[in-house]
Amino acid sequence: MIHARDLTRTFKTKAGAVEAVRGLSLDVAEGELVAFLGPNGAGKSTSVRMLTTLLPPTSGTASVGGSDVVAEPAAVRRKIGYVGQKNGAGVYYKVRNELLTQGRAQRMDPAVARRRADELIEMLELTGLEDRTGAKLSGGQKRRLDVALGLMHNPEILFLDEPTTGLDPHSRANLWEHIDRLRKATGMTIFLTTHYLDEADTMAERVMIMDNGRLIADDTPARLKADLAGDRISVSLTSTTEAEQAAGIAANLPGARETEVCGYSVAVTVREGEAILPEFIRRLHEVGAQVATASVKRPTLDDVFLGLTGRSLRESAVG
Ligand SMILES: Nc1ncnc2c1ncn2[C@@H]1O[C@H](COP(=O)(O)OP(=O)(O)OP(=O)(O)O)[C@@H](O)[C@H]1O
């Protein structure tokens, strides 16, 4: 559904050239939900703007829904819905009128547009708000209207640029319920950018991580966490001698990485912590070591980014 090969985009600024995207290649299959993650300035929005025909690439190629983004931009636009960070609903227009205006902009037949508007009002729980202006909607309601606007022409692929930024946790969860329902009902392909790592982790089937204009990881959240971060087992003992002994045992556990001793404690990274911990404790008991506490910390996508770049995704920004 979405294919890019060696896509680059350079901006010329007074301070010099900014290479916002450097050789991006990606493939998204029909019906997938892909989350695009990365620190501020990594190149996510620039990539999405190229894929949605809003910005011409400096070099490289991309096709979306089978049409080339440079040669056939109109065909791409017919197949995609784009909900940007700023291109959403206005504050002066009423909900239903806004949807109908969007239908006109998409050259939809007026009767079809009216039916579609009613369908979307129901689907995105905007019933009862049809005659309210954008200014009188809550953050969550407004964002649902933004999504409805992007869906008016029944696109096959939906691009969402930070759909939940600025929403409270309840509205975030609610918007996700709607996105999930929409996917189940239509099988739509969804490509979104987000700053919420937990959201990408639980909702996306595939996560792409961008840093400094390049794609540095592309896999399911579970595989990224197992392969690039791993579970952290921590065990505390009753003396530093025992801790040193435990570190030697930890280093020989199946798939052990990064063993660390600190005082009475030892920590080790493994692929499947919950399966390995009983074996670790058994081996410690075998040598007579006394285990005081034991825990397993599951990795987050931030740990994945940290493993890849040595920086935290939560705190880092490029440039
Ligand atoms: N029109 C422009 N002119 C000059 N530089 C630009 C322009 N648009 C983006 N950039 C630069 O390109 C780089 C990538 O920006 P982009 O907005 O794609 O990042 P992002 O990952 O979407 O960041 P954020 O998470 O903050 O939205 C940044 O260094 C940014 O300053």
Automatic annotation (TrEMBL):
Q: State a single Pfam family of this protein.
A: ABC_tran
Q: Where is the ABC transporter domain?
A: 2-237
Name this polypeptide is given: ABC transporter
What InterPro entries does the annotation carry? AAA+_ATPase, ABC_transporter-like_ATP-bd, ABC_transporter-like_CS, ABC_transporter_ATP-binding, DrrA1/2-like_C, P-loop_NTPase
Q: Which SMART domains does this UniProt record tie to the protein?
A: AAA
For this UniProt record, give its keywords in alphabetical order, as a comma-separated list.
ATP-binding, Nucleotide-binding, Transport
* Membership in a protein family: Belongs to the ABC transporter superfamily.
Query: What are the top taxonomic ranks of the organism?
Result: Bacteria, Pseudomonadati, Pseudomonadota, Alphaproteobacteria, Hyphomicrobiales
- UniProt key word ATP-binding: yes
Superkingdom of origin organism: Bacteria
